[in-house]
Amino acid sequence: MDNLVIAGKSYASRLLVGTGKYKDFDETRAAVDASGAEIITVAIRRTNLGQNPDEPNLLDVLPLSSYTFLPNTAGCYTLEDAVRTLRLARELLDGHSLVKLEVLGDPKTLYPNMTETLRAAEILVREDFQVMVYTSDDPIAARQLEEIGCVAIMPLASLIGSGMGILNPWNLQIIIENAAVPVIVDAGVGTASDAAIAMELGCDGVLMNTAIAAARNPVLMASAMKKAVEAGREAYLAGRMPKKIYSASPSSPVSGVIASSKDKSV
């Protein structure tokens, strides 16, 4: 089986999806089901997991028994806020240690603040969190995060929510080639072809939220993303043919081909 392995646990799906921005929890559940995802991200500061007993609880539609929850620090701009949020998540989820760290630099671009991210990662790893980390596509920062002990590196393809796709495939390839932990594209995917390209580059998985939730038909887009990730992974494993400006070699052999009447000598 060609499964995704994170922190020692195996997953059949290489698509990770978020749970925000849907019109209601019913649509959230339908989209998650259509995606086939086993790991789902949850913004602890924006989603009720029981901390507000009078409000709808996400756990009622997406139970912990069926999914691996990945609490994240969306909306955090300092390491203190990020660390505090994930400590709260561990309490809400009965000691859950697998988390997604993101420390944002500004509210306009949502680009990661790498100085704060690195410091927060060090604290969380020391506290025995299994840290999957949102990062820039800087290969040096990716290596530093792995050296700290993060269990997955999650470089952006382009800015969060932009839908611009993969803008710098070369940096992603450098990160992939040098990482000993899973590399999962996080942010910027807009449609199924973006997800397929990420997987064809050799990424271990793709995480997305807005690309599905903001689609005209989120459930149908979730299904499309599932197929794209699977197709991209198979294409990567198969190994594409070399690119050429032109080919002097025909796609079919010519030896043994029966000559036409025009080619026969009289």
Strand/helix succession: EEEHEEHEHEHEHEHEHH
Shape: globular
Mean pLDDT: 90
How far is the first residue's CA from the last residue's CA?
60 Å
Helical content (DSSP H or I, runs of 4+): 25-40%
- Catalogue the unreliable spans: none
Number of helices: 8
Structural class determined from secondary elements: alpha/beta
Instruction: Characterize the quaternary organization of these chains.
Output: single chain
Largest sheet: 5 strands, parallel
- State Rg: 22 Å
According to DSSP, the number of beta strands is: 10
Strand order of the largest sheet: 5-4-3-10-9
- Proportion of β residues? 15-25%
Q: How would you explain this protein's 3D organization?
A:
The chain contains eight helices and ten strands. It has a five-stranded parallel beta sheet with strand order 5-4-3-10-9. The chain has a three-stranded parallel beta sheet with strand order 6-7-8, with helices on one face. The protein has a two-stranded antiparallel ribbon with strand order 1-2. The protein is α/β, with parallel strands linked by helices and 266 residues long.
List keywords for this structure.
266 residues; globular; alpha/beta; three-stranded parallel beta sheet; five-stranded parallel beta sheet; 35% helix; 8 helices
Secondary structure topology:
Layout: E1 4-6, E2 9-11, E3 15-18, H1 25-35, E4 39-43, E5 68-72, H2 79-92, E6 98-101, H3 114-126, E7 130-135, H4 139-148, E8 152-155, H5 169-178, E9 184-186, H6 192-200, E10 205-208, H7 210-213, H8 218-238
Parallel strand pairs: 3-4, 3-10, 4-5, 6-7, 7-8, 9-10
Antiparallel strand pairs: 1-2
Helix pairs in contact: 1-8, 2-3, 3-4, 4-5, 6-8
